[in-house]
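Predicting structure from sequence has reshaped protein science. With that in mind, we have picked out one protein's residues alongside their backbone shape tokens:
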Amino acid sequence: MTSRPPLPPELETWLADHPELSSGDLTPPWRLAEGANPLDAAPAPDPARIEAIEAALAQAVVNSAAPRPALRLVKSVRPVYWMAAAACIALLLTVGVLLTQNPTTTLRAASGQYSALLPDGSQVWLNSDATLRYRRSFGNTERRVELVGEAFFEVAKAEIPFVIETFNATVTVLGTSFNVRAVPDDSAPETVVSVETGIVEVAAKNAPDNTIRLAAGQATRVARATALSPLPSVVTDWRRFVFLNQPLGVMFNEIERRFGIEIIASEPIRVHLHNIGTTAKSAEQLVIEICQSSTLKLRYRATANGFEVFKVEP
């Protein structure tokens, strides 16, 4: 059996830039195009053959999410390159269908931190387990992303607003740096937005007219689908572990996500507001510095899955 040659280098390169697509999806139409010699004119097939080709192309469009134009092969009394034309249409249609069925790009930080440059020049840092999605048209007519988890953004200035959709809120900016945390499966799910520079507008998703505008050093919380509430002036930079006026539970959650461990602490400890700024690199060192700097006289001990933090009884 004769082996088939590989796809052309240009096509392989294009596929390498689109890992969500399979080269197998493009192989059949490419083989059809490869077998057509555009220099060899051939008589037009009979009308039944033409209708069969049109029906096949039309059905491919119907099965896709793409717009559905009427596809027709132009009939002519002169010899035409029917095979080449059908092959090219099949190849282009296949690529178009694949792109419309895979319209989004997904970024995810499985563990630790992940940074990426978006197509518009904006920079994003994703915290552990965070996911960011955006359409391939991002930066052309809109700049809209969907966030699950926590991320820090440095948005490039542009006339097109930069919009972040979370499970219960919409954040709109033109150019600034800010942090968004939105974990829908938390015990108390909420979206928290804190601004480092510039101005950010936050709206509850189910009540778009219910908005709040934040300046540098300000923050807000969307605890439910329609409720916004301002927070005290906070500075939160999980990238360098800087937390000002934040509950210890927020810091413990960050350590858990970053290092894949569990921190046990009572609720009175978790809700206690605390300030810390450290460059410590290990989970234990972070826990040590929290205990040493807290006014609660905290201690800790190692457990099978991480650490337990507790108060020293008088």
